[in-house]
Specification:
Elements: H1 4-7, H2 22-36, E1 41-43, H3 45-56, H4 58-67, E2 83-86, E3 89-91, H5 95-104, E4 108-113, E5 116-121, H6 123-134, H7 139-152, H8 157-167, H9 169-173, E6 180-181
Antiparallel strand pairs: 1-5, 2-3, 2-6, 4-5
Helix pairs in contact: 2-3, 2-5, 2-6, 2-7, 3-4, 3-8
């Protein structure tokens, strides 16, 4: 994964996947914290990762809604970017890199809170996330994030982790550590 600043040095004919662009993941996480969090913050890395899982895998979000007896509609129809099977369920091995980038850019603060870390947008991060959420290029994912928050935003990271393990045994739980989730 590279910053767009470094990608401009590649030859013109080199294929470029959005999944390889640092700013792409940064934009999604900023919007996730703003639109799925409470007061522009998310309590815990596990909760952030599980909310991100349901944002990135809308078909799994729809299944979770059915199981929870909630009627909703996902505005996103495809898997945005893959995640891997980690100790605590779906995880993106780039999280630490992206979170570090957002902290270095003064868009995010990460602070210990009890036995977890709280992720909260800085005033600049809040402004950028708001602009992204209003951008037509991000309208579908922003609408989807609002649905995810409505259904799962008040749940704890532990609840979300257990929900993923319970509902997606074949797709997540039975996979070996480090295996990509389809």
């Amino acid at each position: 994964m590279k910053s767009i600043v470094n990608l401009v040095k590649q030859p013109v004919g080199t294929p470029l996947m959005a999944d390889d662009v640092l700013e792409f993941h940064s934009a999604r996480l900023l919007m996730l914290i703003k639109l799925c969090g409470q007061s522009d913050r998310i309590a815990g890395l596990t909760k952030m990762a599980k909310l991100d899982f349901f944002v990135r895998y809308p078909q799994f979000f729809n299944i979770a809604c059915e199981k929870l007896g909630v009627s909703t509609y996902s505005f996103v129809k495809h898997v945005e970017s893959s995640m891997i099977r980690f100790h605590y369920g779906p995880w993106d091995n780039r999280y630490y890199h992206v979170l570090g980038y957002l902290v270095a850019k003064h868009l995010l603060e990460i602070a210990p809170k009890g036995n977890m870390y709280e992720l909260r947008l800085t005033p600049s991060g809040n402004e950028v996330a708001g602009q992204l959420a209003q951008d037509p290029a991000f309208s579908d994912i922003a609408k989807h994030m609002i649905q995810v928050k409505k259904v799962l935003g008040t749940k704890s990271g532990s609840f979300l982790k257990k929900l993923v393990y319970k509902l997606f045994e074949d797709e997540v739980t039975k996979r070996t550590l480090g295996e990509v989730i389809d």
